[in-house]
Amino acid sequence: MNNKIAPSWNKFTDKDVTPEQVFLDRRRILKQLGFVGAGSLLSSTANAGALDFLFGEKEQAAFARSALQHTKNTQYDALYTGTLTPEDKVISHNNFYEFGTAKTDPKRNAQEFKVNPWELVIDGEVDNPIKLDYDQLFKIAPLEERIYNFRCVEAWSMVIPWLGITLADLIKAAKPNSRAKYVAFETLYDPKQMPGQASRFMGGGIDYPYVEGLRIDEAMHPLTFVAVGLYGKTLPPQNGAPIRLVVPWKYGFKSIKSITRIRLVEKQPPTTWNILASNEYGFYANVNPEVDHPRWSQASERRIGEGGILSAKRIPTQMFNGYADEVASLYKGMDLRRNY
Ligand SMILES: Nc1nc2c(c(=O)[nH]1)N[C@H]1C(S)=C(S)[C@@H](COP(=O)(O)O)O[C@H]1N2
Ligand SMILES: [Mo]
């Protein structure tokens, strides 16, 4: 469809130093200038106005996150590599093209995003189609914390403590029937709130809404997670509030954010990055160090938040992102070079 438009992340491959490595955090600048201490300065309109040269108005209206009750599921802890990525990195280095294509855009542009009220519909090949409102998203099953490796196709990675439930628990509530062979996901479509949907340039040439899909056995796998939080609190909008997918053995673009619809279907559904550049991004998108992206190697990755300014600490990328023992059997007999 849009094969002639080069995906915007051409410009943002791992060769680039991320802006947050180069610029001091603005809060820290404020601190150094003596503005911050109590944090109360920012609630005064007069002072906030005086600080506009450092803080955009939107950044002053920081999205409120709530603590979430949860238990820790340590079952998969042996599979993550290295140490947790600091929270401030997880919530400031993002891909969420609905809010802009640069890594710092989502945090800057999403702070006023409204997640409540929300409606998530689960329908299609199911016996019990359901609609969940905002509060119900947190009550389908007890919330667990799971620490997972997270690997973007651009060859950067993080280790993130997510809060959520299995996708299987969510989907079972709708009672899929025997024709349900795939699961199709859709992100909210709301150009008034999502500037990348209102401008083809700002949105990286994607035809919105962003869509993703899984085979039913991938969707029902116990590793496949839907997150409603991270680091103990509800998700910030830049990470996909109020609810997003997390498939730890696949490249990050499969982990669709701010989901409004989950549809059980018979046929393999279209997926956003495959539509944009089918020779570069497949339906499966399993992390595989032996199958390079046409324009860069997938053999290693850069850990966000490790290695300090300008030093690009790289670690080897693992087959299925470290989850091969859990998921390799799903792909038995498949040619992983063809089904990238
Ligand atoms: N709706 C939507 N979901 C999305 C994206 C996006 O642009 N829009 N980007 C994907 C990509 S490429 C990655 S790497 C992850 C990034 O998740 P994070 O910002 O929470 O690290 O979100 C994925 N989900
Ligand atoms: Mo990504």
From TrEMBL:
Modifications the protein undergoes after translation, according to the UniProt entry: Predicted to be exported by the Tat system. The position of the signal peptide cleavage has not been experimentally proven.
Keywords, comma-separated and alphabetical: Metal-binding, Molybdenum, Oxidoreductase, Signal
UniProt KW Oxidoreductase keyword: yes
Enzyme class per UniProt: oxidoreductase
A GO molecular-function annotation: metal ion binding
Positions of Mo-molybdopterin binding: 94, 97-98, 152, 187, 239, 244, 255-257
Subunit details: Heterodimer of a catalytic subunit (MsrP) and a heme-binding subunit (MsrQ).
Entry-linked PANTHER family: PROTEIN-METHIONINE-SULFOXIDE REDUCTASE, PROTEIN-METHIONINE-SULFOXIDE REDUCTASE CATALYTIC SUBUNIT MSRP
Protein name: Protein-methionine-sulfoxide reductase catalytic subunit MsrP
Name of the gene encoding the protein in the UniProt record: msrP
